Amino acid sequence: MKKFDREAAIQGAEVQTKSGLKAKISTFGLIDDDYDLIVHLEDQEGDPFTAVYTHDGFYNASRTPSDLDLFMASKTGWINIYNTCDDSRYVSSSIYSNEEQAVKNATEGIMATIKIEWEE
Rounded to two decimals, what is the model's pTM? Predict the structure, then answer.
């Protein structure tokens, strides 16, 4: 997850709570100076509810798992790790969409093909 960014949220970036609940901001700046975001959320069972948040995406004055963050999409890929003749190692510069593709494109000296995950 990425720290809540009000301007990115206004531009339509996906938002969720730190605990992973889906969130959609429907109102910016219409309540008062402290709590000016109306946010529609779904609980763990998918039931909708609405909450009010601060300008900076906080649920209340103390920091909680209900605070907002920008949603980061999880990505996965496969890379090849190679041995060199002097026993050092290096990683291929290509990230493949599946294991079969990574293995097919491997060259001499391959030590392993591994799955990696990251957020964007």
Answer: 0.55
